[in-house]
UniProtKB/TrEMBL annotation:
Swiss-Prot/TrEMBL GO biological process terms: phosphatidylinositol dephosphorylation; synaptic vesicle endocytosis
SMART domains for the chain: DUF1866, IPPc
GO MF, any single term: phosphatidylinositol-4,5-bisphosphate 5-phosphatase activity
Stated family: Belongs to the synaptojanin family. In the central section; belongs to the inositol 1,4,5-trisphosphate 5-phosphatase family.
Region (Disordered) location: 1002-1021, 1090-1295
Protein name in UniProt: phosphoinositide 5-phosphatase
Compositionally skewed regions (Acidic residues) per UniProt: 1091-1100
Entry's EC annotation: 3.1.3.36
Catalytic activity: a 1,2-diacyl-sn-glycero-3-phospho-(1D-myo-inositol-4,5-bisphosphate) + H2O = a 1,2-diacyl-sn-glycero-3-phospho-(1D-myo-inositol 4-phosphate) + phosphate
Domain of life, source organism: Eukaryota
């Protein structure tokens, strides 16, 4: 069975109707309805009732999910655009057993709101998906193969690694079975070849899986992140299927697990910048190594970086040395071998030197082993992987992994019993050699944009290198944004997400905006304040290294950074021995601001600065290196501090040092620069910034050097605003999105007095009078700059301008007026601006000391501010409790309730299925609108589903339970009654669920597990030798180490998932549960379709809810032919069945939001008390104004104006009237209401109920065929028209 375009998308775009989309699958009877942001699973009956209003929009092979695009607000999905992502073109790669693998070549994004211009917003995301690097599988007979799992992991679990969670989350929130409607997509490369082994068919496969945890492009994503995930991490599996046998081998590649990057224009060089210091990188390095051992078992590092510190590879060699240094100092030094092989140096004369690497790896390959299974029996498992890296993990890594793969291939063929057939071995080797080449090209296209450099064709390699330079430096930024949107969604750039990122774990960040908002608002319940001490200093050093001057050798940096407080004891209010946690030191004029230095930075982003960026994080500027070493030497006098990071723009340089014990609690470190010189073209003026998150509070430190000149106040103000606006950090963070903003630097604001007046007032220490003329204070009081910022008390002389090595102010020809140009200001924001008092002990920051030091090597004096700040620290247990409370209060994700009649009106001849008419729906709509906005209503027989805008409204609507609606007592329940458990499962999708590749067998002793490589041969011996080996081992061990049954394989923790065996005949491992995966749903859990209990007796009468039954497959009999019109039957008393009107058995009601609220505002949300799960929330008081006046009551026979469209299938239980005639069309409505009275145009009315004695008289029944010429009663069903005379005569037959 071949895969076809089984999916069809239908759209309804009526002028006055909400835009909605239906997704059909020709292999299923159910459909998916997307309406007003909600999703509903419709049965075949419900779909047929509304299908005529929809038109075909697109056909597709498969659906990838729903992509959320746009910034989320704090309420529901306002501001978001939802896209249905469809695969409209794909190509087959090959077939693995019953599953066929397809490469995605074209996709279509269907906007679920139908607005013009929505397609342009996702154009870059579409390009990424259409790049030919995404794959999915399909099977027409069984569960398709999960490409994200290797063969060895598939023997232990069937749960995917959640790489598609962003596309699946919207549907799973509404209870849709994603496994039935969506396909799992994998990014990477897949190569499948068929090789015939005699009469048998073997499948040779090479599958590379790109990790989604740190995906990106070459120069945008490098190194590691705080979680230990590295860039360009790829898992490559070499697997062979032969009948019921399978063997596989796994290799990994990944960037060097340190904080490093390659900024600026990269053209044929390896410029490296370390974004964090050595000690600050250790925590992430250890996380990565622990993660590798946990997921893949034993590890062997193969480092292919260069070792020469001379030439263009200097940065690469420095990176390699840092990698080796971290590994040597880590606990993994003894258990994880680190093999260094300088690929370029060793292979300069040819590839024959790769044999040296083979020799080094031989013992490790034997100890790591491979995977082989036959049927349900596993003979050997792979115990670990080789982790290979070079600079980009592309070209050199491709070559080495090919070498290792071909080496392992011979061992795989031994296990398959094919090693003694040279022709077959040669065929496999040739095939895999070509497959590895293609695999390297595909992986390179993902990360670098071009194919891999092979080294054999210099012309082709040169063209690819040029293409890489253009792609990586000019085009990759938009591609990186598209990748981030595809994985995390664009709502991650919102202010709400930024607040949540500091307070919540990363796996919760993709939850709904409403959930994040509610949790973050209650941050006081699960966090506490702790105090950190900051020392923020600024110094304009006038372009030199004058601290080494012998003129003032008695003055040191310690007088400025460490000993300033004791020297000013009268200004210090407490014990001076409280240690500083973070030192922030900013310098201005680090280099001379001459034309050469300025233009070098302006043209090439300071090429010297980015060239090598030493291991301590500074550029190659000699001044910066010298200052950094001196700073570390000074501040480490009493405690140990390490460099976190630093950033430099020409002469502006900012260093951040932290206490060693604080480094594990710091994350999300980033830097940025802004030029303001010559209108933003040069870096002689501007600012640099460092942002970080310490514990659960964010800080941003800015060091600025603004425009000079006594009268350049406007230019300085403009420079401040330019810096504040243009500073942008990863994930869209701006300067104002931080909890603390601390500015330091030479702001160049002067004092509007003459020099003589200044010197006189300085001599008298009249600081307050002088500050009245300070330009910064004046501009701040006028609201022009630094709004809301604080500054410590200024009780020290101006810091500018002095003669060098003198206490005298400027005596040159310019005679500049002394001024406080060097300043430190700070601001703390409230997490929520509307909070009157965020916390009882909330403080904007307390200045402990603000003063200057008497270092005279420059024309400025250095300034320092000792500042105590409060940071939030989360209590994990309290946060989990708050999360549970919020889940309970917000209600189900689908926000849907089920309404069904509990007790009907006492009329005996009323049918319980006839309640869903216009007046009942109007009354139900009025009742439910008091609790929240209703977006969708759909029903089948005697049951109606009502979807609200948010889940809290659905919870509050439960108080309608057992209440009468139009004399009908209704029963109301949640569609998803176990919603709390399901929401928690959905939130856990963000947690990595990758099972370990290999787990030690508990039945085996330590002696065997730690055996030498030669104790367990990698190659499969002949059968007789194998039997002898088994006998020998069995005589020594109680349990055989080889040929273990799959049922004996144990797991560290049984995941709640259905384990798919390798073959149908395989047994489930002991200790594994048979529950469906978390993204799966069952009817008992989600009520996603109407089952037998929901439909009542409907199934017995031929109506199917998506499952084919013998009765449901039978077509209803054709209607009886009406009697001849010339002989009308005499009037008779109609049967009781004709007294009932034809009530729709299924339908969908799209609810358009009213232009003006017709009902009072919904009740306040539940915040103070938790509502027990078994009891409904308290009902809000009913308002008399809810019911309209008597004279404005709506027509009971028409659809209410609030319901924009209501499509129903006019049919009785057998689909026809009692006399065999089919149902006529609904007559047009006779309505005299003006447009002003009814802003929304109503649809035609529903035919009235004949059993209502107040509307239709029952004393005289309606004749089936009225007399000719009679006037039709618009309140009754229209009759069948009669012929207006005798039929025309039959013409005679021609001769």
């Amino acid at each position: 069975m071949a895969m076809g375009k089984n999916l069809r998308v239908l759209a309804k775009a009526l002028p006055e109707s909400p835009y909605s989309v239906i997704l059909e699958d020709r292999t299923k009877k159910d459909t998916l309805l997307f309406d007003s942001g909600a999703v509903a699973v419709l049965t075949e009956l419900q779909t047929e009732a509304i299908r005529k209003q929809y038109s075909r929009l697109a056909d597709a092979y498969s659906c990838l999910g729903v992509l959320k695009f746009g910034k989320s607000s704090t309420t529901a999905t306002e501001g978001e655009v939802l896209y249905l992502v469809l695969v409209t073109a794909c190509s087959s790669v090959g077939k693995i057993r019953d599953s066929e693998v397809f490469r995605i070549t074209q996709t279509q994004f269907v906007s679920l709101r139908g607005a013009v211009g929505d397609d342009e917003r996702v154009s870059e995301v579409r390009k990424v998906l259409n790049s030919g690097t995404f794959y999915f599988t399909w099977s027409g007979s069984s569960e398709p193969l999960d490409l994200s799992l290797c063969v060895q992991r598939r023997t232990r679990t069937a749960v995917t690694d959640n790489r598609n969670r962003n596309l699946f989350s919207h549907l799973s929130g509404y209870g849709v079975d994603c496994g039935e409607w969506l396909v799992k997509m994998m990014c990477g490369a897949v190569e499948i070849r068929t090789i015939y082994v005699g009469h048998r068919q073997a499948k040779a496969c090479l599958i590379s899986r790109l990790s989604f945890e740190r995906a990106g492009t070459r120069f945008n994503v490098r190194g590691t992140n705080d979680e230990g995930h590295v860039a360009n991490f790829v898992e490559t599996e070499q697997v062979i299927f032969l009948e019921d046998e399978v063997t596989s081998y796994l290799q990994t590649r990944g960037s060097v697990p340190l904080f490093w990057e390659q900024p600026g224009i990269q053209v044929g060089s390896h410029k490296v910048k370390f974004s964090r210091g050595t000690e600050a990188s250790k925590h992430a390095f250890l996380k990565h190594m622990h993660l590798m051992k946990e997921r893949y078992g034993r590890q062997v590092i193969v480092n292919l970086l260069g070792a020469s510190l001379i030439g263009s590879k200097e940065g690469e060699a420095t990176l390699s040395q840092m990698f080796q240094s971290h590994h040597k100092d880590s606990p993994f030094a003894r258990t994880v071998p680190h093999i260094l092989f300088d690929y370029h140096a060793e292979c300069k004369g040819g590839m024959q030197n790769l044999s040296k690497l083979q020799e080094k790896l031989r013992d490790h390959l034997r100890s790591l082993s491979l995977f082989y299974a036959k049927g349900s029996e596993i003979f050997v498992q792979q115990k670990g992987t080789l982790r290979t890296n070079c600079m980009d993990c592309l070209d050199r890594t491709n070559c080495v992994q090919t070498l290792i793969g071909l080496e392992i291939l011979s061992k795989q063929l031994h296990w398959l019993g094919l090693a003694d057939k040279p022709q077959i071995v040669a065929r496999f080797q040739d095939m895999y050699r070509q497959m590895w080449t293609n695999n390297g090209n595909e992986v390179s296209k993902i990360y670098a944009g071009t194919g891999a450099l092979q080294g054999g064709n210099k012309l082709m390699d040169g063209a690819r290198s040029a293409a890489r330079t253009i792609q990586n430096n000019l085009l990759d930024s938009s591609k990186q944004e598209a990748i981030d949107v595809l994985i995390m969604g664009s709502s991650m750039n919102s202010e709400l997400a930024d607040r949540a990122r500091t307070l919540l774990p990363s796996h919760l960040l993709q939850a709904s905006a409403g959930f994040l908002n509610e949790v973050v608002k209650r941050y006081q319940e699960f966090s506490e304040h702790m105090t950190l001490r900051l020392a923020v200093g600024t110094y304009n050093i006038n372009g030199g290294k004058h601290f080494r001057s012998i003129v003032y050798k008695d003055c040191s940096l310690a007088d400025w950074l460490l000993d300033c407080r004791p020297k000013a004891a009268e200004d210090f209010e407490e014990e001076p021995d409280v240690p500083v946690d973070i030192f922030v030191v900013g310098f201005e004029e680090m280099v001379d601001l001459n034309a050469a230095n300025i233009m070098a930075a302006s043209i090439a982003l300071d090429d010297d600065y980015f060239h090598s960026y030493s291991t301590l994080g500074v550029g190659s500027s000699e001044n910066a290196k010298a200052w950094e070493k001196e700073l570390l030497k000074t501040i480490n006098r009493d405690r140990e501090y390490v460099l976190l990071t630093s950033v430099q723009l020409v002469g502006i340089c900012l260093f951040v040092f932290v206490d060693l014990h604080l480094t594990p609690h710091i994350r999300d470190v980033a830097t940025d620069i802004v030029k303001t010189g010559l209108g933003g073209a040069t870096g002689n003026k501007g600012a640099v910034a460092v942002r970080l998150v310490v514990y659960n509070s964010s800080m941003c430190f800015v060091c600025g050097h603004l425009a000079p000149g006594q009268s350049a106040v406007t230019e300085r103000n403009q420079s401040y605003h330019d810096v504040s606006r243009r500073l942008i950090f990863p994930m869209g963070k701006s300067l104002n999105s931080h909890d603390y903003i601390i500015w330091c630097g030479d702001f160049n604001y002067r004092v509007d007095l003459t020099k003589e007046e200044m010197e006189q007032m300085i001599s008298e220490s009249r600081w307050e009078e002088l500050l009245e003329y300070d330009q910064l204070r004046v501009q701040q009081s006028q609201g022009n700059v630094f709004n809301g910022f604080l500054e410590g008390p200024i009780n020290f002389p101006p810091t500018y301008k002095y003669d060098l090595f003198s206490d005298d102010y400027d005596t040159s020809e310019k005679c500049r007026v002394p001024a406080w140009t060097d300043r430190v200001l700070w601001r703390r924001r409230k997490l929520f601006p509307q909070e009157a008092s965020p916390m009882d002990d909330w403080s904007p920051g307390e200045c402990k000391f603000y003063g200057r030091a008497e270092l005279k090597q420059s024309d400025h004096r250095p300034v320092i501010c000792i500042l105590d700040v409060q940071v939030l620290r989360v209590r994990e247990e309290d946060r989990n409790r708050v999360i549970d409370d919020v889940i309970h209060e917000l209600g189900p994700s689908d926000a849907t309730i089920v309404v069904e009649p509990h007790q009907h009106s006492p009329t005996e001849d009323d049918d319980i299925e006839d309640i869903f008419d216009g007046d009942f729906t109007q009354a139900l709509m009025n009742e439910l609108s008091a609790y929240g906005q209703v977006v969708l209503m759909y029903f089948a027989q005697n049951k109606m589903w009502v979807t609200f805008r948010d889940g809290r409204a659905a919870l509050q609507a439960l108080c309608v339970n057992e209440q009468p609606i139009n004399d009908v007592v209704v029963s109301v329940r949640l569609k998803t009654e176990n919603y709390e458990e399901l929401v928690k499962q959905e939130l856990r999708l963000g947690i990595s669920n990758t099972v370990p590749l290999y787990v030690k067998d508990k039945d085996k002793g330590d002696e065997e597990e730690e055996a030498k490589p030669h104790d367990l041969p990698l190659t499969m011996p002949p059968l007789s030798e194998m039997q002898a080996l088994d006998l020998v081992i069995l005589s020594k061990k109680k349990n055989p180490p080889i040929r273990r049954a799959l049922s004996a394989v144990t797991a560290p923790a049984p995941p709640p998932t259905l384990v798919l065996p390798l073959h149908h005949s395989m047994q489930l491992p002991n200790g594994f549960d048979t529950k469906p995966p978390l993204y799966k749903s069952t009817r008992a859990q989600f009520y996603t379709s109407i089952d037998d209990s929901d439909l009542g007796d409907g199934e017995q009468e031929g109506w199917s809810s998506g499952r084919s039954t013998p009765e449901g497959d039978k077509k209803p009999p054709p209607p009886n032919r009406p009697p001849p019109p010339s002989r009308p039957p005499p009037p008779t008393i109609p049967s009781p069945s004709l007294k009932k009107k034809s009530t729709p058995r299924a339908g969908v009601i799209s609810v358009k939001p009213p232009l003006q609220p017709a009902r009072p505002a919904p009740p306040a949300p539940l915040t103070d008390e938790l509502v027990p799960a078994a009891a409904p929330p308290p009902c809000p008081p009913r308002q008399d104004s809810i019911s309209p006046p008597e004279e404005s009551q709506p027509d009971p026979f028409s659809i209410p104006p609030q319901l924009d469209s209501m499509s129903r299938e006019e049919t009785t239980k057998n689909g026809t009237y009692g006399n065999g005639r089919t149902a006529p069309p609904v007559p047009p409505r006779q309505d005299s209401s003006s447009p002003e009275e009814t802003p929304l145009r109503p649809l035609p009315p529903i035919p009235p109920r004949n059993d209502n004695e107040d509307r239709v008289s029952s004393t005289k029944p309606l004749p089936l065929i009225p007399p000719r010429g009679s006037v039709r009663n618009p309140a009754s069903a229209p009759p069948i028209p009669c012929r207006s005379g005798l039929p025309p005569p039959i013409p005679p037959r021609g001769n």
